[in-house]
Amino acid sequence: MKNLSALALSSSSNLRYLGLSLTFYDQPVEDVRELFWDYNSILQMLNISGQLAELAQLFENQPRNINNHVVESPIRITSLTLEYSLLVDDPMPVLEKFPTLRYLDLSYDSYVGKEMELPEGLIFLTSLQHLWLDSMPIDFIHKLCTTNGTQGQDYYRVAHFPHIDITQ
């Protein structure tokens, strides 16, 4: 990984896009966080398979101020897959801060907490083109789906996404 880091951060590098697929179990979040921030400027696709203590710790960092007025998110990820993450805390407050996110896949025990909310901010995540939910809690799914012509209570929060795939 150190060679890849040197290549990615080199001024002579032509590397403009990087996708990482990480599989780990009981990995300290600090190690994963360091890896993420080392490649943040070019990291566009991130697949994480394995237990995460808390999603917010992985992505926490200070946003940058531009012209003392505009706050820019340092996160450039366009595709994020989480599976077997066993997150207990709701990931939505973190995910809604990804301004370039176009594809989101929450699958296979990515979330095992009691209740996942879809904060109002997700409505304004206009870059998201594809939401994939697989093997998520049934109560959560019912809030998002339309059943027998009746929309779930949170359907309006995801209705603007062009592609939504929900499987059990």
UniProtKB/TrEMBL annotation:
InterPro entries assigned to the protein according to its UniProt record, in alphabetical order: LRR_dom_sf
Domain of life: Eukaryota
Protein name per UniProt: Uncharacterized protein
